[in-house]
Write a structure and sequence with these properties.
The complex is a heterodimer.
Chain A (H helix, E strand, L loop, with lengths): L12 E6 L2 E6 H23 L7 H13 L7 H33 L11 H14 L8 H20 L6 H25 L2 H11 L8 H28 L3 H6 L4 H23 L5 H13 L6 H21 L8 H23 L5
Antiparallel strand pairs in A: 1-2
Chain B lengths: L5 E10 L2 E11 L4 E5 L6 H8 L7 E6 L2 E2 L5 H7 E4 L11 H7 L13 H14 L14 H14 L4 E5 L7 H18 L2 E5 L3 H7 L2 E6 L2 E6 L1 H4 L2 H8 L3 E5 L6 E5 L7
Parallel strand pairs in B: 3-8, 3-9, 6-7, 7-8
Antiparallel strand pairs in B: 1-2, 1-4, 4-5, 9-10, 11-12
């Protein structure tokens, strides 16, 4: 057999071989992930340094290494290790989960507008959580699951209303926005009817705040992310075919209905758990995947890149939220909304002009 | 003609409640180019979609190697039947080489996503379609003809014994139409692939088909070698067009020339 003259591999990919296994690796996406990881590490150190009192980076690194390897306890242990560290961890994990959730749902809907915060998932999770709180359920171990149920319920609701001989992306988004608003009102109603103290607590949580978040919030989030990791590898592969039109995807041997449902469910669960930990922080899930994709220039939204970008957005936003109007702390959701809302408007205007205003 | 791989029996195809094809039996001859023609809305694309399991029959069945297509796992079907829809939509910003690579998806296992067989299939598919020079270009930026060649390369990389093409010449100018059809012909001749093509143009169908299927209103009016079945009567029956059938000056096959009622005397 003659050797083909044409390239035998996709441009920009390297083949990774391990025993009989073989994988395609997008070089630019790998590089971007490495750079994002490095930027994230630096941001994390800065995050731990900055606050009401400044702790030098050297001291931060010492606290971190003593936490890992024992050694001399640092005098800054309390500020860095007890006050700032848990909050940072929750922020990073929630940001990563939001980023992946956005990437998955935008992929399935083939629409950059369709992120879990726009289509009602986070609001569903929020409403369910507030309802649970109003009825006296405040355990950090249970709330994430209540949140997941709320997110799934909202997603199913959107699905049922948007389904009309198939799922049209624009209708999906519009109905999602409608459901979001309805669920927002429901949440407000619960707040007015409920106990004053609970309402106070829930209100702060609802703007998306990392204030007072501890490891007990991080634990459910971390374990669910860990458990879902194999599913995410599957999802990254499924993304390659789902990003075609329905007929082409089916012709390539994809059980489209089932794959879409699984990807959506995965995204909804991740967004809901992140919401439970950090509150319904808006726009991280909307922004992160699109930024990541522009960086990697891949043909589908990169999951690792979205996770890292989401985590970075959360860390930077919360850093600014803590420091910008110091000593007053803003909820991180206010910061992400300040950046995200104009982007959303721009996206809607652009989508309208591209599709001639048809929805 | 028994023993052909792809057959349909008592096929009833509907969209919503509208019956498009009602009780159709069909065999696709192995190793030949079959062209399906017919007027708009005669059900030819619908039939092709059913042959490629994109549309589930209301009644009857499409059989692949004697097994009901809808009962074979879709990934297994994708290893045997390649299908190119009329207007496929590529993932945003995808390059030609990556698009062609996606054709290998049905052959991958989760731990083996790139093997030597993949390299060979992709390289050959790009060689055959002349898309090697376009490898790094985004599909969105290609001309119509180049884009169509890239899609065909993807379908070829899938390396299936059967290839179904739904109007692969739509939106192409005449030179690119001929180019694409020559390519299809060549694939069939050199690799013995069974090809089924839906075409609009009767004369192209006559030239490129080994086996021609003429459809009207969801049923088969005539089928066979173009020389045997294309007559002025058939053209009138299928398309409602008066014409003269003359020998094609290039191939000697039938050439349909529409008559000109406005030019009398």
């Amino acid at each position: 057999m003659t050797v083909p003259k044409s390239p035998t591999r996709p441009t920009g990919f390297s083949v990774l071989r391990a025993g009989r296994g073989s994988f395609l690796l997008h070089r630019r996406a790998t590089l971007v992930a490495a750079v994002l990881g490095a930027v994230l590490a630096v941001t994390a150190v800065v995050y731990l340094c900055v606050g009401e009192s400044f702790v030098s980076p050297v001291e931060v690194v010492r606290v971190l290494s003593s936490a890992v390897g024992g050694g001399q306890p640092s005098p800054d242990e309390f500020v860095v290790g007890t006050l700032r560290m848990p909050r940072l961890v929750v922020g990073l994990l929630a940001g990563a989960a939001f980023g992946i959730a956005g990437a998955l749902i935008q992929t399935v809907a083939r629409n950059p507008l369709a992120s879990p915060d726009v289509i009602g998932v986070t609001h569903g999770a929020g409403a369910a959580t507030v309802a649970a709180m109003t009825f006296g359920l405040t355990a950090h171990t249970t709330l994430p699951y209540v949140s997941i149920l709320g997110g799934l319920a909202a997603a199913s609701l959107v699905y049922v209303f948007a389904w009309r001989r198939g799922l049209h992306a624009a209708r999906f988004v519009l109905i999602g926005i409608g459901i979001s608003v309805a669920l927002g009102s429901l949440t407000q109603l619960l707040l007015t009817k409920g106990d004053y103290l609970v309402a106070q607590q829930a209100k702060v949580w609802l703007t998306g705040s990392l204030n007072g978040r501890g490891y007990d919030h991080a634990l459910p989030l971390a374990s669910i992310l860990l458990v879902l990791t194999p599913a995410l590898f599957w999802a990254a592969r499924a993304q390659r075919t789902v990003s075609f039109d329905d007929d082409t995807a089916t012709a390539l041997g994809v059980r489209l209905g089932r794959v879409r449902l699984c990807l959506t469910a995965l995204g909804v669960v991740l967004a809901s758990v992140a919401t439970s930990a950090a509150g319904p922080v808006d726009f991280v899930a909307l922004l992160a995947p699109q930024i990541a994709r522009r960086l990697t220039r891949t043909a589908q939204i990169p999951l690792a890149g979205s996770a890292l970008t989401g985590a970075l957005i959360m860390a930077v936003a919360d850093l600014l939220a803590r420091k910008l109007f110091s000593p007053i702390e803003l909820p991180v959701g206010v910061l992400t909304a300040a950046v995200g809302a104009p982007y959303l408007m721009w996206l809607i205007v652009r989508t309208r002009s591209r599709f001639g205003g048809a929805a | 003609m028994t023993g052909n791989r792809l057959r349909a029996e008592g096929l009833v195809l509907t969209y919503e409640d509208r019956t498009v094809v009602d009780g159709l039996d069909l065999e696709i001859p192995d190793g030949q180019v079959t062209v399906i023609i017919g007027p708009n809305a005669c059900g030819k694309s619908t039939l092709l979609r059913a042959l490629g399991r994109l549309l589930k029959p209301r009644r009857g069945a499409v059989l692949l190697d004697g097994a009901e297509l809808s009962r074979i796992p879709t990934k297994r079907v994708a290893q045997e039947i390649g299908l190119l829809p009329q207007t496929p939509v590529p993932p945003e910003g995808i390059t030609v080489s990556e698009l062609v690579t996606r054709g290998r998806q049905p052959h991958h296992k989760w731990w083996q996503q790139w093997t030597e067989a993949d390299e060979k299939a992709v390289g050959e598919a790009m060689d055959r379609t002349g898309t090697g020079d376009l490898a790094e270009r985004p599909v969105d930026e290609l001309s119509g003809g180049q884009r169509q060649r890239a899609w065909i390369a993807m379908a070829l990389a899938q390396d299936t014994g059967l290839l179904l093409l739904d109007e692969p010449t739509t939106y192409l100018d005449i030179a690119h139409q001929v180019e694409v059809l020559d390519l299809v012909r060549q694939l069939n001749r050199e690799r013995g692939r069974t090809v089924v093509v839906v075409l609009h143009d009767l004369n192209q169908a006559a030239r490129y088909a080994d086996h021609l299927i003429a459809m009207k209103a969801g049923r088969i009016v005539a089928q066979g070698a173009p020389r045997d079945i294309i007559t002025a009567d058939l053209v009138r029956e299928v398309f409602g067009l008066t014409s003269v059938v003359v020998p094609d000056p290039v191939t000697g096959g039938p050439l349909v020339v529409p008559s000109a009622p406005w030019q009398r005397g």
